[in-house]
């Protein structure tokens, strides 16, 4: 063991010198991650989707129709940006991407209401963006429902009922919705803790593949192995540990941006998040070592590693729930440490879940760390045989 530690420290000193001499390490480990974190912090600074432009075709143009338009415009999501004269104009605006919905108020709208005849409003939503579609439809429907209830309330009160009696008759069953962990539907709380770790993951993979791949590309792999006194385990540990340390420090910057700038709440254990972050970095470093050891090609390893990293977001369940996926795809989601890390983030940041419930996710991520042990013989071979050197 003392010999292993001595050899590992020797490789770490060599790797530290390489990191300080090559600007690419500085770019991949510090500049690009911090820039990407700052970008997402600014992107989600507003938090919630607000003031989506819509158009209104008011074919009645009466006091009640204008009141309905005002109530729609007062909703958080919808902003009445255009008063159009016909559906052709609305269709043109929607095709140009200038509006996301059209609300049509028919002629005789006020007359039908005052004569107790049924009338209707038409809502045409683009539907190209599922999130915007859902929010706009919900807010517009809420505004119209509130408008309708107000009219019925006035009618019942004119019949001699008190406001309480009218409300009880109008809404015999009252439905109250309670959003427990993100009551303001803040997208910053939901997406920043997802996109920032995704960027961290991508740069961890890239810099780890780059660190090993350049040894093969520049035919310095034998020298690297020799610094570790021929121990491939010591050589690998000394190679990746400086990168691990720097990326963990960068991950702390990510957490500070999340908590202090984006304002994501921390309802659970910070210690669990820190341990999970360290395991997250180590797991993707392990996967990177496996990729570059098997392919022994810097360019191809970067491509495969990048593709694997990007797929992680698709299978994380953040956009389409894992429980709703086809069962084989649910199993595929388990081959990405990102899936387990996002569970930890959501549980500890938003839900305030007791730390013990995050232990399975921590254990799953720990399993990925054994991957380099499976490829040590292969790594030693590519480091000692010249036919693997000099590839792009």
Automatic annotation (TrEMBL):
The chain crosses the membrane at residues 23-44, 187-212, 232-257, 269-296, 308-326, 355-376. Its main location: membrane. Residues 26-373 form the ABC-2 type transporter transmembrane domain. GO terms for molecular function: ABC-type transporter activity. Pfam families: ABC2_membrane_3 (PF12698). GO terms for cellular component: plasma membrane. Keywords: Cell membrane, Membrane, Transmembrane, Transmembrane helix. It is found in: Cell membrane. It is a multi-pass membrane protein. It comes from the Bacteria. This is ABC-type multidrug transport system, permease component.
């Amino acid at each position: 063991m003392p010999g292993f530690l001595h050899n590992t420290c020797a490789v770490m000193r060599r790797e530290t010198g390489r990191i300080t001499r090559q600007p690419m390490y500085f770019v991949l480990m510090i500049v690009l991650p911090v820039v990407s974190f700052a970008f997402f912090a600014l992107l989600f600074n507003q938090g919630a989707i607000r003031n989506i432009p819509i158009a209104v075709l008011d074919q009645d143009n009466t006091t009640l129709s204008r009141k309905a338009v005002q109530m729609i415009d007062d909703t958080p999501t919808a902003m009445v940006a255009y008063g159009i004269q016909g559906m052709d104009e609305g269709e043109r605006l929607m095709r140009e991407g200038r509006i996301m919905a059209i609300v049509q108020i028919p002629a005789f709208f006020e007359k039908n209401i005052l004569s107790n005849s049924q009338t209707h409003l038409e809502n045409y939503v683009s539907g190209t963006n599922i999130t915007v579609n859902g929010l706009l439809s919900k807010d517009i429907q809420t505004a119209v429902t509130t408008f309708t209830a107000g009219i019925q309330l006035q009618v019942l009160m004119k019949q001699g009922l008190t406001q309480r009696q009218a409300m009880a008759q109008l809404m015999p069953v009252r439905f109250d919705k309670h959003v427990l962990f993100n009551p303001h539907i803040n997208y910053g709380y939901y997406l920043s803790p997802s996109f920032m770790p995704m960027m961290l993951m991508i740069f961890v993979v890239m810099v780890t593949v780059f660190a090993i791949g350049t040894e093969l590309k520049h035919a310095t792999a034998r020298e690297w192995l020799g610094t570790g006194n021929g121990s491939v385990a010591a050589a690998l540990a000394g190679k990746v540990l400086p990168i691990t340390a720097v990326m963990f420090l960068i991950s702390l910057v990510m957490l500070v941006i999340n908590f202090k700038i984006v304002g994501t709440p921390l309802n659970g254990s910070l210690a669990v998040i820190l341990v999970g972050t360290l395991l997250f970095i180590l797991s993707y470093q392990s996967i990177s070592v496996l990729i570059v050891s098997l392919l022994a090609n810097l360019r191809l390893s970067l491509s495969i590693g990048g593709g694997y990293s990007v797929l992680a977001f698709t299978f994380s369940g953040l956009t389409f729930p894992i429980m709703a996926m086809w069962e084989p795809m649910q199993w595929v989601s388990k081959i990405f440490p990102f899936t387990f890390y996002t569970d930890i983030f959501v549980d500890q940041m938003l839900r305030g879940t007791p730390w013990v419930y995050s232990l399975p996710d921590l254990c799953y991520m720990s399993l990925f760390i054994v991957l380099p042990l499976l490829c040590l013989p292969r790594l030693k071979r590519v480091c000692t045989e010249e036919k693997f050197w000099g590839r792009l």
